[in-house]
Write a structure and sequence with these properties.
223 residues; alpha+beta; 6-stranded antiparallel beta sheet; 6 helices; 6 strands; 42% helix
Length: 223
């Protein structure tokens, strides 16, 4: 009887040792990662970018009334957007590894003011946020910059829409600038402005250079 008891105990221990760890909880589809940005020296001075796990999201911006001589500016933006699933997955992975942003983000270093960024995670059971100008945490700083680059893409897309309607010749310089931004990383996620790029790529009323640059940007899109 004692031997049977020892054998049963041994099997129980072995079962505990060999049991697979519980799988990580999946991110709820209604969870969001959000960045709120503000810098009164820039136009727009405020914007909010919201992303969901599948890459869908929303962007809205607010600009102060223009003063003095200015080039054609895009109006305030308030629209749904789409980014690649890889980009969204990276954003949510950083949120998860940084306690849903319930961490200290700001470095308190004496660096140039780059704008206040507030990263927020919201889910069914978790919520957190942190605000920073510059973060020593590479993941936090990188995510802030990447979401700024997506915001820049959306804003450039809105400018292209205005130029297409009011100043077609101005599209040439703007598309050259946008191409440079994608090359050096200041703009990211072509899919966020796929609609206007497809319109330009197929519009024979704009300069050939504009069409070709739009086609080239679309060709580098992951979708």
């Amino acid at each position: 009887m004692k031997m049977l008891w020892l054998l049963a105990a041994a099997l129980t221990v072995a079962g505990r040792i060999e049991a697979a760890p519980a799988p990580e909880a999946a991110i709820a589809p209604d969870s969001v990662v959000q960045e709120d940005f503000s810098n009164p020296a820039l136009s727009p001075s405020q914007w909010t970018l919201i992303l969901r796990p599948d890459g869908s999201g929303h962007f809205r911006s607010h600009s102060d009334p223009a003063t003095g001589e200015k080039v054609i500016e895009a109006p305030n933006v308030d629209r749904d957007i789409e980014v690649s699933k890889d980009f969204a997955e990276r954003a949510f992975a950083i949120a998860k590894s940084h306690k849903s942003f319930n961490v200290q983000c700001e470095s308190h270093l004496k660096v140039a003011f780059q704008g206040w960024k507030t990263l927020t995670f919201s889910g069914p059971a978790e919520h957190g946020s942190c605000t920073f100008n510059y973060s020593r945490d590479r993941d936090i700083q990188s995510l802030g910059e990447s979401m700024q680059a997506v915001a820049q893409t959306v804003l450039e897309g809105a400018r292209l829409e205005v130029l297409l309607q009011h100043d077609r010749l101005g599209l040439d310089q703007e598309m050259e600038y946008l191409t440079d931004e994608f090359q050096d990383g200041r703009a990211q996620e072509v899919d966020a402005i796929r609609g206007i790029l497809e319109r330009l790529a197929g519009d024979d009323q704009v300069l050939d250079r504009v069409r070709k640059r739009a086609q080239n940007l679309l060709a580098h899109s992951p979708t």
